[in-house]
Amino acid sequence: MSEGVRWKRVLLKLSGEALMGDQDFGIDPKVVERVAAEISEAVNLGAQFGIVVGGGNIFRGVALAAKGANRVTGDHMGMLATIMNSLTLADALRQRGIQARVLSAVPVPSICESFTQRGAERYMEDGDVILFAGGTGNPFFTTDSGAALRAAEMQCDVFLKGTSVDGVYDADPKLKPDAKRFDTLTPGEVLEKNLKVMDATAIALARDNSIPVVVFSIKTSSALVNVLRGQGLFTVIED
């Protein structure tokens, strides 16, 4: 472990919606700045960061498919949305003096580098923050699954999932104020209870590679740094 943090190599998954703030669509620069500030603080504590940002604030392929459009086309559009979000967050990190690189599973060489495991490993060892864009590069896979895949490839110590609530509940706490928050869960319990924290593929990838999943609220100030120190409210999913 690095000084002051519980885990050294981290995969942070953020939903695209986390970047919207109070808007109904798009990117709120104030939210991006706040998230970048917290990541910068964590990096300065000694953590190595890989980041996956979803694209739901811009486009959802599943939503398009539900209206009768081609799912593959929709998922390709969603991959492009994740690249846009990654470029935005990378720029905010660079403005804070953090070396950030966007590596895409979908080749767009005039915009960013293409992902290779060896290249990403070299950058992370150098202390660069890596934003893994483009999902897995394949349709029908969520960005949660893409994040779990990258966490396994990069041999991350933990998968941090930043959400709008401070952990995993037995019901939606926004709809049921008396919903119970879990401090710990096993991957089997998540699947058995049908808790919608992430899809089954992502849970299985994390479980099979012995990577704990920590769910916390990215909307809470300083929550990221607190979680890395083992403080605050969160749910840990591991066997």
TrEMBL record:
SUPFAM superfamilies: Carbamate kinase-like (SSF53633)
Description of how activity is regulated: Inhibited by UTP.
Coiled coil: none
UniProt-listed Gene3D superfamilies: Acetylglutamate kinase-like
Pathways per UniProt: Pyrimidine metabolism; CTP biosynthesis via de novo pathway; UDP from UMP (UMPK route): step 1/1
Alphabetic keyword roster: ATP-binding, Cytoplasm, Kinase, Nucleotide-binding, Pyrimidine biosynthesis, Transferase
Enzyme class of the recorded protein, top EC level: transferase
Binding site for UMP: 55, 75, 136-143
EC annotation from Swiss-Prot or TrEMBL: 2.7.4.22
Catalytic activity: UMP + ATP = UDP + ADP
Compartment list: Cytoplasm
Subunit text: Homohexamer.
Function: Catalyzes the reversible phosphorylation of UMP to UDP.
Assigned protein family: Belongs to the UMP kinase family.
Name of the featured protein: Uridylate kinase
Annotated organism of origin: Pseudovibrio ascidiaceicola
Lineage: Bacteria, Pseudomonadati, Pseudomonadota, Alphaproteobacteria, Hyphomicrobiales
Name of the gene this protein is made from: pyrH
